[in-house]
């Protein structure tokens, strides 16, 4: 019997203007069946679902002030699909960079 794993993967897609086709383009790509060869065996990888979040830079979400990766303030936002961080001295930091700022 085969084992089935559900893996959650996040993609950040940056566009100049909001484009409703971003989800369609991503879905069209991901809905194609992909065969991945690992250790001489083919494995099927298929997209089952896609959820799109519009990220607007502000006090609870934005790019880390140190490394520039997208992050959310865990005390102001419940989104957990991207890096979690917090605000320190009025700036947003991911937790990987926060220690170097304290």
User: Span from first to last CA?
Assistant: 51 Å
Total strands: 6
- Tell me, rounded to a whole number, the average pLDDT: 79
Say what oligomer this is. Answer: single chain
Structure write-up:
This protein has 102 residues and is an alpha+beta fold. It has a domain at 61-101. 17% of the residues lie in helices and 26% in strands. It has two helices and six strands. The strands form two sheets. A four-stranded mixed β-sheet has the order 3-4-5-6, covered by helices on one side. The longest helix has 10 residues, at 21-30. The mean pLDDT is 79.
Task: Indicate the topology.
Blueprint: H1 21-30, E1 34-38, E2 41-45, E3 61-63, E4 70-73, E5 83-88, E6 91-94, H2 95-101
Parallel strand pairs: 4-5
Antiparallel strand pairs: 1-2, 3-4, 5-6
Describe what is shown at a glance.
With 102 residues, the chain is α+β, with helices and mostly antiparallel strands.
């Amino acid at each position: 019997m085969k084992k089935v794993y559900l893996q959650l993967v996040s993609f950040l897609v940056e566009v100049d203007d909001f484009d409703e086709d971003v989800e369609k383009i991503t879905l069209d790509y991901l809905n194609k069946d992909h065969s991945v060869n690992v250790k001489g065996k083919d494995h099927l990888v298929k997209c089952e679902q896609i959820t799109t979040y519009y990220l607007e830079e502000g006090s609870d979400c934005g790019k880390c002030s140190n490394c520039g990766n997208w992050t959310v303030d865990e005390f102001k936002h419940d989104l957990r699909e991207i890096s979690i961080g917090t605000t320190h001295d009025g700036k947003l930091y991911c937790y990987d960079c926060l220690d170097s700022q304290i």
